[in-house]
């Protein structure tokens, strides 16, 4: 299972959450995590989507999703610096994940299906 969490940039409060199976790609639930008033989007490399980035930039908002290198090439210095910056926002989401995993006893969740 995966937990996707949308948080407020200033306060770090969760405003949306989506739980999916592990086979659902992160970028497929991105729209469900947005409430429409975002001025910037932070995310890891899984949220890279050029079409969504262009639409977001055209509206005058900031796209802060981490960058990925070209296939077979190392990430350049400028992109490595860019990728270090957004990790500050990830700490806010980590707080919610810590509550779920530690306090509620879900440090290891296993799926049991038929088969």
Order of helices and strands: EEHEHEHH
Q: Termini distance? A: 17 Å
Characterize the largest beta sheet: strand count, sense, and whether it forms a barrel: 2 strands, antiparallel
Strand percent estimate = 15-25%
Q: What class do helices, strands and sheet pairing give?
A: alpha+beta
Number of helices: 4
* Major sheet strand order: 1-2
The count of DSSP E runs of length 2 or more, i.e. the number of strands, is 4
Radius of gyration from the alpha-carbon trace, in angstroms: 16 Å
Total number of distinct structural domains: 1
Unreliable stretches = none
What portion of residues is helical?
A: 25-40%
Average pLDDT metric: 77
Assign an overall shape. Answer: globular
List the helices and strands and how they pair.
Blueprint: E1 2-7, E2 14-20, H1 30-33, E3 40-43, H2 50-58, E4 62-65, H3 77-84, H4 87-103
Parallel strand pairs: 3-4
Antiparallel strand pairs: 1-2
Describe what you observe in this structure:
The chain is an alpha+beta fold and 115 residues long. It has one domain. 33% of the residues lie in helices and 18% in strands. The chain has helices spanning 30-33, 50-58, 77-84, 87-103; strands at 2-7, 14-20, 40-43, 62-65. A hairpin with a 6-residue loop joins strand 1 (2-7) and strand 2. It is globular. The model has no long low-confidence stretch (mean pLDDT 77).
């Amino acid at each position: 299972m995966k937990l996707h969490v949308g948080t407020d940039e200033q306060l770090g409060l969760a405003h949306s959450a989506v739980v999916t199976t592990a086979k659902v790609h992160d970028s497929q639930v991105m729209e469900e995590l947005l409430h429409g008033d975002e001025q910037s989007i932070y995310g890891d490399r899984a949220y890279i989507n050029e079409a969504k980035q262009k639409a977001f930039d055209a509206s005058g908002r900031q796209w802060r999703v981490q960058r990925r290198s070209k296939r077979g090439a190392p990430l350049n210095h400028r992109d490595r610096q860019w990728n270090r910056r957004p990790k500050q926002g990830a700490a806010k989401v980590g707080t919610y994940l810590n509550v779920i995993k530690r306090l509620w006893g879900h440090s290891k969740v296993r799926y049991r299906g038929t088969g």
